[in-house]
Every structure is written in structure tokens, then in C-alpha cells.
């Protein structure tokens, strides 16, 4: 199936496919309860709710992990079964608009070996603009049988990133806003700047003005100049391993292949003062 689906495609599947699982990933860092509240007010019929911090992240250990470490595999598998996901289920994930949260769940499912998973392009906003039905009804789910096996080659650790700095082979791609990358501004983490040698490609650059993904050829053009021979030498990071998944999704959508994720990202990198930090010098 396609990695990216439209609201009208999903609407048709609601009546045609009994093995369809829809997951609402709306979340706000500024208000962690906002996603659940938005889901309770209205959501796509049949959708279950996934909380970024409760369901899609592991336990935060101050001074050691980033803000959204990878979840425990057994706990994640159990949660996916609770949502009714089977080995052969088609899974569609969405958030409010820009797919920044949905891409995290897409990556987690892919990490566990789920192949039939797609993002709803434009998210819940696109669904509403298409005047498709919404509901407050909570779906009744039968326990699924999905058992995922994680692929350890899809991500890298902080120690591996640190080792690479002395003999760089990887190209680190930072998905955060330019002002955070440059060190001019850091609204979330305690230290501003970026990992030395990293390039800055903010995830918002993958999107149109209305929050849908750019056409594949435009995404390919955006990423074609990255200086690596193998896509696995691309390592994506962000603030906490969430929006980096957006760049990974966009590159795969463009046909480039699947880069690797540094899930600890900037928030884990700066958890220790011993790791180097780079900033962009103001030329003015």
C-alpha cells in the first residue's frame, strides 16, 4: 500500500475494510492533555487515541535519556494489540495537520516490522476540510495478534554518534527549526546549538502551506545534495526523536531510501556536559 493516503481513500476504506486500524496521534508539547481532549471532542470514526508521552515513548531518566526515548518493545506490542492491530492489519495514522506526531508512530510500527502502515496526508484538518464524518464514539476493539520484532539497524545510540565525530562517515540531519539549530534560540532544551557537523533541514520544509507533503519529486530535490553514498549513512535527529521521523518518512516517500534515527536526539545529547556543541557564528 502507499505510504501516504488521502482523506477520500481512507473514507472509502471505512466501509470496505474490516481489518483497518486508525490511530489518532494529536499532541501538543505546550499542553500534553490537548491531544486527548481533541480526540474526545471529535475524531475519525473507528480511530483510537495514542498519546506521545504515555504510549509512544519510554520512561525518561533525567541526565541520561532524551525527552521521548523509545518505548519498551513488549509494552508497545501490548498496546498495539490493545488497539486491535493484527499481523495483517492496515494501519493509518494521523495527527492534527503536519504529520509531525503521526510520523513517530509510523516509524515505531516500521521499526517493529509492520509494512502496511500509512500516514493520512494533511491529518485531521484535511479530513475536516473534506467534510468527512467525525464522531465522539469510542470504538470497541478486539485484542489483536500483532507481535513486532524490532530492527536494531534502524537507529543509532548517543555513543555511536559520539564515536563518529572523530572519523565522520555519517551525515547528521537536524530536523529542528533553524534558530534552534544555530544556537540563537532554544525554547525547550537547556542548551542551544547542534551536534558538530550536522546539517539543518527543518521538517516543515517537507510540507506545503496547508500541511500536506510536497510531491515526491520536490522532496527528492530537497534531499538530493546530502553528502553520502549510502542512505544508511544518513542519521536523522531533532529535539527528542519525534520530528526526525518526519524527515525519514519524507526521504523514503521520495524514493531515496530509509535513513536511520538517532532517537535520543538533542535532548539526550545535551544531557551530559561532556558532549560537544556547535553553534552558527553570527557573521554580522
From TrEMBL:
Q: Which PROSITE patterns match?
A: RHODANESE_3
Where the record annotates domain Rhodanese, the positions are: 16-136, 166-278
InterPro entries per UniProt = Rhodanese-like_dom (IPR001763), Rhodanese-like_dom_sf (IPR036873), TST/MPST-like (IPR045078)
Gene3D superfamilies xrefs: Rhodanese-like domain
Keyword Repeat on entry: yes
Keywords of this entry: Repeat, Transferase
Q: Does the keyword Transmembrane helix feature in the UniProt annotation?
A: no
Q: What is this protein called?
A: Sulfurtransferase
Which organism does this sequence originate in? Spartinivicinus poritis
Amino acid at each position: 500500500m502507499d505510504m501516504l493516503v488521502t482523506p477520500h481513500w481512507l473514507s472509502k476504506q471505512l466501509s470496505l475494510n474490516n481489518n483497518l486500524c486508525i490511530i489518532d496521534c494529536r499532541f501538543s508539547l505546550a499542553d500534553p492533555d490537548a491531544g486527548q481532549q481533541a480526540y474526545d471532542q471529535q475524531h475519525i470514526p473507528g480511530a483510537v487515541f495514542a498519546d506521545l508521552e504515555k504510549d509512544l515513548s519510554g520512561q525518561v531518566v533525567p541526565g541520561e535519556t532524551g525527552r521521548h526515548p523509545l518505548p519498551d518493545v513488549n509494552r508497545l506490542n501490548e498496546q498495539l494489540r490493545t488497539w486491535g492491530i493484527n499481523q495483517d492489519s492496515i494501519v493509518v495514522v494521523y495527527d492534527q495537520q503536519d504529520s509531525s506526531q503521526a510520523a513517530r508512530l509510523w516509524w515505531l510500527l516500521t521499526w517493529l516490522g509492520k509494512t502496511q502502515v500509512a500516514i493520512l496526508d494533511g491529518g485531521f484538518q484535511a479530513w475536516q476540510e473534506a467534510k468527512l464524518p467525525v464522531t465522539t464514539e469510542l470504538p470497541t476493539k478486539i485484542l489483536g495478534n500483532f507481535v513486532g520484532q524490532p530492527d536494531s539497524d534502524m537507529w543509532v545510540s548517543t555513543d555511536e554518534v559520539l564515536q563518529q565525530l572523530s572519523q565522520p562517515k555519517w551525515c547528521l540531519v537536524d530536523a529542528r527549526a533553524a534558530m534552534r539549530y544555530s544556537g540563537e534560540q532554544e525554547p525547550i532544551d537547556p542548551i542551544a546549538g547542534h551536534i558538530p557537523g550536522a546539517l539543518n533541514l527543518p521538517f516543515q520544509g517537507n510540507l506545503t502551506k496547508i500541511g500536506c507533503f510536497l510531491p515526491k519529486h520536490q522532496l527528492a530535490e530537497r534531499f538530493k545534495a546530502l553528502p553520502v553514498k549510502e542512505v544508511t549513512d544518513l542519521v536523522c535527529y531533532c529535539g527528542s526523536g519525534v520530528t526526525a521521523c518526519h524527515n525519514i518518512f519524507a526521504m523514503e516517500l521520495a524514493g531515496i531510501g530509509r535513513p536511520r534515527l538517532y532517537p535520543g536526539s538533542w535532548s539526550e545529547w545535551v544531557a551530559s556536559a561532556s558532549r560537544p556543541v556547535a553553534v552558527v557564528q553570527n557573521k554580522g
